[in-house]
Amino acid sequence: MKALSQRRRHPLAAIALLLMGLLLTGGIYAVASNANEAKAQTSVSASDIEEGEKLFVANCATCHGMGAAGTEDGPSLIGVGAASVDFQVGTGRMPLQMQGPQALQKPVQFTEEQIQQMAAYVASLGAGPAIPSEELLDTSGEEVDPAAGGELFRVNCAMCHNAAAAGGALTRGKFAPTLEGVTEKHIYEAMVTGPQNMPVFSDANITPEDKQDIIAFLKIIEEQGSPGGADLGSLGPVSEGLFIWVAGLGVIIAFTVWLTSRSS
Protein backbone atom coordinates (compact mmCIF):
# COMPACT_ATOMS: atom_id res chain seq x y z
CA MET A 1 0.00 0.00 0.00
CA LYS A 2 2.85 2.36 0.82
CA ALA A 3 4.43 1.68 -2.58
CA LEU A 4 1.15 2.40 -4.35
CA SER A 5 0.65 5.64 -2.47
CA GLN A 6 4.17 6.74 -3.38
CA ARG A 7 3.48 6.03 -7.07
CA ARG A 8 0.25 8.03 -6.94
CA ARG A 9 2.25 10.98 -5.64
CA HIS A 10 4.81 10.69 -8.44
CA PRO A 11 5.15 14.03 -10.33
CA LEU A 12 4.39 12.29 -13.64
CA ALA A 13 1.19 10.69 -12.34
CA ALA A 14 -0.97 13.66 -13.33
CA ILE A 15 0.48 13.70 -16.84
CA ALA A 16 -0.04 9.95 -17.19
CA LEU A 17 -3.67 10.28 -16.10
CA LEU A 18 -4.20 13.15 -18.54
CA LEU A 19 -2.74 11.13 -21.41
CA MET A 20 -4.91 8.16 -20.52
CA GLY A 21 -7.99 10.39 -20.47
CA LEU A 22 -7.14 11.88 -23.85
CA LEU A 23 -6.55 8.46 -25.38
CA LEU A 24 -9.83 7.16 -23.95
CA THR A 25 -11.77 10.20 -25.21
CA GLY A 26 -10.17 9.98 -28.65
CA GLY A 27 -10.94 6.28 -28.88
CA ILE A 28 -14.59 6.78 -27.98
CA TYR A 29 -14.89 9.63 -30.52
CA ALA A 30 -13.30 7.53 -33.27
CA VAL A 31 -15.64 4.62 -32.59
CA ALA A 32 -18.68 6.91 -32.58
CA SER A 33 -17.59 8.62 -35.81
CA ASN A 34 -17.05 5.31 -37.55
CA ALA A 35 -20.44 4.08 -36.36
CA ASN A 36 -22.18 7.20 -37.67
CA GLU A 37 -20.37 6.95 -40.99
CA ALA A 38 -21.25 3.30 -41.32
CA LYS A 39 -24.88 4.11 -40.56
CA ALA A 40 -24.91 6.83 -43.22
CA GLN A 41 -23.43 4.50 -45.82
CA THR A 42 -25.61 1.45 -45.24
CA SER A 43 -27.26 1.85 -48.65
CA VAL A 44 -23.91 2.03 -50.48
CA SER A 45 -22.73 -1.16 -52.12
CA ALA A 46 -19.29 -2.22 -53.30
CA SER A 47 -20.47 -1.97 -56.90
CA ASP A 48 -21.48 1.67 -56.32
CA ILE A 49 -17.98 2.45 -55.09
CA GLU A 50 -16.42 0.60 -58.03
CA GLU A 51 -18.57 2.44 -60.58
CA GLY A 52 -17.91 5.71 -58.78
CA GLU A 53 -14.17 5.15 -59.04
CA LYS A 54 -14.48 4.61 -62.81
CA LEU A 55 -16.44 7.83 -63.17
CA PHE A 56 -13.96 9.67 -61.00
CA VAL A 57 -10.94 8.49 -62.99
CA ALA A 58 -12.61 9.46 -66.27
CA ASN A 59 -13.89 12.87 -65.21
CA CYS A 60 -12.14 14.14 -62.08
CA ALA A 61 -8.66 12.61 -61.79
CA THR A 62 -7.13 15.11 -64.22
CA CYS A 63 -7.39 17.83 -61.56
CA HIS A 64 -7.80 15.90 -58.31
CA GLY A 65 -5.30 13.14 -59.08
CA MET A 66 -5.52 9.39 -59.02
CA GLY A 67 -6.93 8.28 -55.70
CA ALA A 68 -8.23 11.85 -55.17
CA ALA A 69 -4.96 12.79 -53.48
CA GLY A 70 -4.93 16.21 -55.17
CA THR A 71 -2.67 17.99 -57.67
CA GLU A 72 -1.58 21.56 -58.39
CA ASP A 73 -4.88 22.05 -60.22
CA GLY A 74 -7.22 20.60 -57.62
CA PRO A 75 -7.29 19.86 -53.88
CA SER A 76 -7.31 16.47 -52.22
CA LEU A 77 -10.79 15.02 -51.75
CA ILE A 78 -9.83 12.54 -49.05
CA GLY A 79 -12.06 13.22 -46.06
CA VAL A 80 -14.42 15.71 -47.75
CA GLY A 81 -17.28 13.21 -47.55
CA ALA A 82 -20.17 12.30 -49.82
CA ALA A 83 -22.03 15.55 -49.14
CA SER A 84 -19.29 17.62 -50.77
CA VAL A 85 -19.38 15.57 -53.96
CA ASP A 86 -23.17 15.60 -54.06
CA PHE A 87 -23.19 19.39 -53.73
CA GLN A 88 -20.40 20.22 -56.17
CA VAL A 89 -21.44 17.75 -58.88
CA GLY A 90 -25.17 17.98 -58.18
CA THR A 91 -25.19 21.76 -58.73
CA GLY A 92 -23.08 21.52 -61.89
CA ARG A 93 -20.07 23.29 -60.40
CA MET A 94 -17.97 20.20 -61.01
CA PRO A 95 -16.40 19.12 -63.27
CA LEU A 96 -14.90 22.59 -63.50
CA GLN A 97 -15.65 24.38 -66.75
CA MET A 98 -12.61 26.63 -66.54
CA GLN A 99 -10.08 27.83 -63.98
CA GLY A 100 -11.16 30.99 -62.22
CA PRO A 101 -11.71 32.64 -58.84
CA GLN A 102 -14.43 30.09 -58.07
CA ALA A 103 -16.43 27.31 -59.69
CA LEU A 104 -19.45 28.59 -61.59
CA GLN A 105 -22.80 26.84 -61.57
CA LYS A 106 -23.79 25.24 -64.87
CA PRO A 107 -26.08 22.44 -66.12
CA VAL A 108 -25.51 19.16 -64.27
CA GLN A 109 -23.33 16.75 -66.28
CA PHE A 110 -24.29 13.47 -64.60
CA THR A 111 -27.37 11.52 -63.62
CA GLU A 112 -28.45 11.26 -59.99
CA GLU A 113 -27.25 7.65 -59.88
CA GLN A 114 -23.80 8.58 -61.20
CA ILE A 115 -23.51 11.41 -58.68
CA GLN A 116 -24.34 9.01 -55.84
CA GLN A 117 -21.74 6.54 -57.13
CA MET A 118 -19.00 9.18 -57.23
CA ALA A 119 -20.03 10.37 -53.78
CA ALA A 120 -19.82 6.80 -52.49
CA TYR A 121 -16.32 6.40 -53.92
CA VAL A 122 -15.00 9.64 -52.39
CA ALA A 123 -16.68 8.80 -49.06
CA SER A 124 -14.88 5.44 -49.06
CA LEU A 125 -11.51 7.23 -49.07
CA GLY A 126 -12.04 8.91 -45.71
CA ALA A 127 -14.76 9.88 -43.25
CA GLY A 128 -16.58 13.13 -43.94
CA PRO A 129 -20.05 14.71 -43.94
CA ALA A 130 -22.66 12.34 -45.37
CA ILE A 131 -25.53 13.29 -47.66
CA PRO A 132 -28.34 14.49 -45.35
CA SER A 133 -31.33 12.23 -44.87
CA GLU A 134 -34.89 13.24 -45.68
CA GLU A 135 -35.56 13.59 -41.97
CA LEU A 136 -32.92 16.34 -41.68
CA LEU A 137 -34.40 18.18 -44.65
CA ASP A 138 -38.02 18.07 -43.50
CA THR A 139 -39.13 21.58 -42.52
CA SER A 140 -42.84 20.82 -42.18
CA GLY A 141 -42.75 19.88 -38.50
CA GLU A 142 -44.27 22.07 -35.82
CA GLU A 143 -40.93 22.29 -34.03
CA VAL A 144 -39.32 24.06 -37.01
CA ASP A 145 -39.02 27.81 -36.36
CA PRO A 146 -38.44 29.96 -39.49
CA ALA A 147 -38.23 33.13 -37.39
CA ALA A 148 -35.31 31.68 -35.44
CA GLY A 149 -33.85 30.53 -38.76
CA GLY A 150 -34.04 34.08 -40.06
CA GLU A 151 -32.13 35.35 -37.04
CA LEU A 152 -29.48 32.68 -37.48
CA PHE A 153 -29.21 33.49 -41.18
CA ARG A 154 -28.74 37.21 -40.54
CA VAL A 155 -26.06 36.54 -37.94
CA ASN A 156 -24.10 33.88 -39.84
CA CYS A 157 -24.88 34.24 -43.56
CA ALA A 158 -26.27 37.67 -44.49
CA MET A 159 -22.87 39.39 -44.59
CA CYS A 160 -22.11 37.41 -47.76
CA HIS A 161 -25.45 36.21 -49.13
CA ASN A 162 -27.38 39.42 -48.35
CA ALA A 163 -30.22 39.62 -45.81
CA ALA A 164 -32.67 38.62 -48.54
CA ALA A 165 -30.43 35.72 -49.68
CA ALA A 166 -29.96 37.46 -53.03
CA GLY A 167 -26.18 36.97 -53.03
CA GLY A 168 -23.40 39.52 -53.08
CA ALA A 169 -19.92 40.36 -54.29
CA LEU A 170 -16.78 39.29 -52.43
CA THR A 171 -13.11 40.09 -53.02
CA ARG A 172 -10.85 39.07 -55.93
CA GLY A 173 -13.68 38.34 -58.34
CA LYS A 174 -15.47 35.95 -56.00
CA PHE A 175 -19.12 36.16 -55.01
CA ALA A 176 -21.74 34.59 -52.77
CA PRO A 177 -24.50 33.17 -55.00
CA THR A 178 -28.19 33.77 -54.62
CA LEU A 179 -29.99 31.07 -52.65
CA GLU A 180 -33.23 31.37 -54.58
CA GLY A 181 -34.10 28.07 -56.22
CA VAL A 182 -31.45 26.08 -54.34
CA THR A 183 -32.81 22.79 -53.02
CA GLU A 184 -33.02 22.01 -49.32
CA LYS A 185 -30.46 19.25 -49.72
CA HIS A 186 -27.88 21.47 -51.38
CA ILE A 187 -28.38 24.23 -48.80
CA TYR A 188 -27.77 21.74 -45.99
CA GLU A 189 -24.74 20.25 -47.77
CA ALA A 190 -23.25 23.71 -48.30
CA MET A 191 -23.50 24.42 -44.58
CA VAL A 192 -21.74 21.22 -43.53
CA THR A 193 -19.04 21.22 -46.25
CA GLY A 194 -18.22 24.90 -46.78
CA PRO A 195 -17.86 25.08 -50.57
CA GLN A 196 -15.85 27.82 -52.30
CA ASN A 197 -15.32 30.69 -49.81
CA MET A 198 -18.04 29.59 -47.42
CA PRO A 199 -17.03 28.53 -43.89
CA VAL A 200 -18.03 25.13 -42.54
CA PHE A 201 -20.97 25.21 -40.13
CA SER A 202 -20.66 21.91 -38.35
CA ASP A 203 -23.24 20.53 -35.94
CA ALA A 204 -21.11 21.91 -33.12
CA ASN A 205 -21.83 25.56 -34.00
CA ILE A 206 -25.14 25.22 -35.90
CA THR A 207 -27.14 22.17 -34.85
CA PRO A 208 -29.17 20.10 -37.35
CA GLU A 209 -32.33 21.62 -35.89
CA ASP A 210 -30.96 25.13 -36.45
CA LYS A 211 -30.08 24.19 -40.02
CA GLN A 212 -33.70 23.13 -40.54
CA ASP A 213 -34.84 26.51 -39.22
CA ILE A 214 -32.53 28.33 -41.64
CA ILE A 215 -33.76 26.27 -44.60
CA ALA A 216 -37.37 26.92 -43.59
CA PHE A 217 -36.68 30.68 -43.47
CA LEU A 218 -35.04 30.65 -46.91
CA LYS A 219 -37.94 28.76 -48.45
CA ILE A 220 -40.49 31.13 -46.94
CA ILE A 221 -38.84 34.28 -48.30
CA GLU A 222 -38.45 32.51 -51.64
CA GLU A 223 -42.19 31.78 -51.76
CA GLN A 224 -43.10 35.32 -50.71
CA GLY A 225 -41.08 36.90 -53.50
CA SER A 226 -41.06 40.72 -53.43
CA PRO A 227 -44.46 41.86 -52.13
CA GLY A 228 -43.39 45.52 -52.28
CA GLY A 229 -42.79 45.52 -56.04
CA ALA A 230 -39.50 45.51 -57.96
CA ASP A 231 -36.75 44.36 -55.59
CA LEU A 232 -33.91 46.09 -57.52
CA GLY A 233 -31.58 43.20 -56.75
CA SER A 234 -32.58 43.18 -53.05
CA LEU A 235 -29.56 45.38 -52.33
CA GLY A 236 -31.45 47.59 -49.90
CA PRO A 237 -31.49 51.41 -49.54
CA VAL A 238 -28.30 51.93 -51.57
CA SER A 239 -29.73 50.64 -54.83
CA GLU A 240 -33.13 52.16 -54.08
CA GLY A 241 -31.61 55.55 -53.34
CA LEU A 242 -29.48 55.39 -56.50
CA PHE A 243 -32.54 54.55 -58.58
CA ILE A 244 -34.50 57.45 -57.11
CA TRP A 245 -31.55 59.81 -57.62
CA VAL A 246 -31.05 58.81 -61.28
CA ALA A 247 -34.76 58.80 -62.05
CA GLY A 248 -35.35 62.08 -60.25
CA LEU A 249 -32.39 63.75 -61.91
CA GLY A 250 -33.62 62.52 -65.29
CA VAL A 251 -37.04 64.04 -64.67
CA ILE A 252 -35.48 67.37 -63.66
CA ILE A 253 -33.27 67.44 -66.77
CA ALA A 254 -36.21 66.54 -69.03
CA PHE A 255 -38.36 69.24 -67.41
CA THR A 256 -35.57 71.80 -67.83
CA VAL A 257 -35.16 70.94 -71.51
CA TRP A 258 -38.92 71.23 -71.99
CA LEU A 259 -39.03 74.64 -70.31
CA THR A 260 -36.12 75.87 -72.41
CA SER A 261 -37.76 74.73 -75.63
CA ARG A 262 -40.99 76.47 -74.63
CA SER A 263 -39.30 79.79 -73.92
CA SER A 264 -37.46 79.78 -77.23
Give an overview of the whole structure:
With 264 residues, the chain is an all-alpha fold. The chain folds into two domains: 44-128, Cytochrome Bc1 Complex, Chain D, domain 2, CATH 1.10.760; 132-246, Cytochrome Bc1 Complex, Chain D, domain 2 (Orthogonal Bundle), CATH 1.10.760. 57% of the residues lie in helices and 2% in strands. Helix 3 (46-59) crosses helix 6 (112-125) and helix 5 (81-90) crosses helix 10 (184-193). The chain is extended and about 95 Å long.
Features:
Cytochrome Bc1 Complex, Chain D, domain 2, 12 helices, 2 domains, mainly alpha, 2 strands, two-stranded antiparallel sheet, single chain
Would you spell out the secondary-structure blueprint of this structure?
Layout: H1 2-8, H2 13-40, H3 46-59, H4 61-64, H5 81-90, H6 112-125, H7 134-137, H8 146-156, H9 158-161, E1 168-169, E2 175-176, H10 184-193, H11 208-224, H12 237-263
Antiparallel strand pairs: 1-2
Helix pairs in contact: 3-6, 5-6, 5-10, 8-11, 10-11
Number of domains: 2
Q: Examine the coordinates and then state which fold CATH places here, giving the name of the CATH topology of the largest domain.
A: Cytochrome Bc1 Complex, Chain D, domain 2
- Computed CA radius of gyration, to the nearest angstrom: 26 Å
Strand order of the largest sheet: 1-2
CATH class of the largest domain: Mainly Alpha
CATH architecture of the largest domain: Orthogonal Bundle
Distance between the termini: 117 Å
Q: Which structural class should the secondary elements be placed in?
A: mainly alpha
Q: Describe the global form.
A: extended
| Uncertain stretches | 33-42
| Topology pattern, helix = H, strand = E | HHHHHHHHHEEHHH
**Total count of helical runs of at least 4 residues:** 12
Percent of residues in β-strands = under 5%
